[in-house]
Structures are given as C-alpha cells and as structure tokens.
Amino acid sequence: MRHKKYMSSGGLAFSEKKDMQKLAKQAAKGWHLRDFAFMGYRLVRGEPKQVQYMIDYRTLDEAEEQEYLDMFEHAGWTFVCGSYGMYIFEAPIDAAPIYTDVDTKQDKLKRSASFIPKLALVSTVLTLISFWIYYVTDSWIAAIVCLLLFILAVLSIWTTATFYYRSLKLIRKGED
Length: 176
Hints:
Layout (H helix, E strand, L loop, with lengths): L3 E5 L3 H17 L2 E7 L2 E6 L5 E7 L4 H13 L3 E6 L2 E7 L9 H12 L2 H22 L2 H34 L3
Antiparallel strand pairs: 1-3, 2-3, 4-6, 5-6
Helix pairs in contact: 3-5, 4-5
C-alpha cells in the first residue's frame, strides 16, 4: 500500500473552496495534506479524521510569521503547510471559521489577488514587445516566446477577471 499521493488543484483562483472541501474529504479517507506540490497537493496516509481546511494569503517576514501562526493556533486552527505567502490550516469540523463576515472575506480575497493584475499587465506588455520583435525579425524563437507570453497574458487576465467576479459576488451576496 502506498503512503503518499498527489491531488491536483482546480486552481486556487477558481476553486479555492472546492479544493479545501476535497482535502477534507481526503482526510476523512485517511489522506492528509502534507504540503503544496506543482499544481496541487501532496498527501500522506494516516488515520481517517473529520477536519476542515482553510487557506489564507499573507506576505510576512520571519518575525511576523510566528505571531500570525500563533493567532490561528489560539483560534483552534493548526498550521499544515505554506508556500509563497499561502498558508493552509486545518481544524476540527466544529471549529469556528476564521472568515465569517463580508469585510474579512473581501480583505482575504484582495490579498490573494494582489499580484495578479500586475502579472497581467507585465505579461501583456511583454507579449506586445515579443510580437513586435517577431514581426521585425521573423524568427521562430521569437514566435515561440510570443506564443508563451500570450498564453501567460491570457491566463493572468482571466485570473484577474475571476478574482474581480468573486469580489463582486462577495459584495452583492455576501458569499464567495
């Protein structure tokens, strides 16, 4: 019997809530989140347990991080893993959620999406520059770079639009 497995992510920009629910279902089957993996999560075999997962987004220095983790610990949430400003916590099913009102949910959403519009702008500008270089040089390398940057620009613009849609939905309906 294997002791590790991979679970793909639906993309935190698009399915954060679904990912956390999938992780909880896996924990109930005895597969527990260990850490982030490329486009997903690494799980390890353990005893089945009923837990809930929550992700938060923060850019912290080392001095702030321990205080931040302690705050969650005092609220009943245990730190599981973190990477690049993303922190995943777990708690028993009956633990109170961290984000309960629209304002704190909006703040979390803004933190999670803060770099994406910048990425969209940079990748769009780089795509235009690479397209101009391709046009001038007619190089196949420039064409490939142009295509890759175009794909990155489209994905980052799509992700930006998704976050803005989630923000509007949160403002209007109070749900994410």
